Amino acid sequence: MLFQYSEKNNTLSVEHAIVRKAGTEMKFSKSGKGIVMLQFNMLQISYGGESNSSLGYIMLEGLEPGRNFTWGFSIQRTLGSNMQLNFIYDGRASKDNPVVHTGNVQVRVFF
């Protein structure tokens, strides 16, 4: 279980963010084969400022004021002695915005 509290202040203006984060992460691994990782987080964000500005985006970590959810899933698979295959999926949901899904695939070769 993860619990995190952070405050962010813009000393040149009035922007102030309070981020409360609670989540969980699970990791399964098998020696020589790979790793599977799952995560889920709930964030409660209080923000005093313009959320549609570049500073607001940074202070809000790309999320929105209020309740937000983030989740992720990744598989890291070892292929032979010098290759690695990674599948990564992340999602996030905010109150007034559609769910955002992001995924990527990586192949790594070690020389």
From TrEMBL:
This is Uncharacterized protein.
